[in-house]
Amino acid sequence: MFVLWSVRNKDAGRLARDLNQARALLEQREHERDLAQEELFRRLYEERELNKEKAQFQSQLAEYEKYAALAQLALGAAHEINNPLLGILSHLELELKDAADLEERQEIEQCISGAKRISSTLHGLVNYARPGPLVLSKISLHRLIEDTLAFLEHQPMLRGKQLENTVPRDLPHIRADANQLSQVLMNLLLNAAEATGEGGRISITASKLTFVDMIEIRVSDTGCGIPPDILAHVFEPFFTTKRGRGTGLGLSISQAYVRSHNGEIRVDSVLHHGTTVTLTLPIRNEEVIENAKEESEIVV
What we know:
The protein is of the alpha/beta class. It folds into 2 domains: 1-130; 135-299, Histidine kinase-like ATPase, C-terminal domain (Heat Shock Protein 90), CATH 3.30.565.10. The protein has 7 helices and 8 strands, in the order ααβαββαββααββαβ.
């Protein structure tokens, strides 16, 4: 009886050990399976992110290639057209001096206006294709915006519209090209004025971003807004809704100027409610400073 009991105990012990070993092996296999699944999910996620980055890179590359081709076309067109155009303008102005008939003068003036429009378009093309080198100085944004508004306040399209400048005087000075930045602001303000009816409001604000050495400038209006299908194309060269009144290069050139400062420009708009254009610029950008001519004067 004792022998039988001992054998049974040994068998039970062996079964318990086998069961524990099987349980441990199962747990190990489950752990390995979980690790394999995690690794698979991680690789799938990385592959998806890589594919997304690849698609973004290819899209940017296609955009840069398109702009590079346009730049070459623009420079070639400007060279081939500008000199003959100046000759045509000079001849038309001489014809205008000698013209006595009112109808004839009007026709010549229309020709001169058309030639000047071509010249303006060529100038915009050259600015877009080959922006001039940056000339950096230490700029007070409050003063620069104040001067820009003062320069524009007598423009007919701004009459009857409320202009607000709430840019703080104590904002940090930034290193930037005052001429390029002023051109960007003038273009944005004139666009806002065209979109805003009489009695509307155009405001310009700025602030230092938290935790980063960046300044954000916002030009807002209470105008007609931009439809979503048009908003996606506003930075494309030659895209314009100002039939016969614009070249479609204003925002493209503004974007080129802002990016030359390692900044970004964004347009947000709600149809029938208004538009806000946001510029984000570094306060001091070492890469830009190294590649630009720097002037010591301070705009205060």
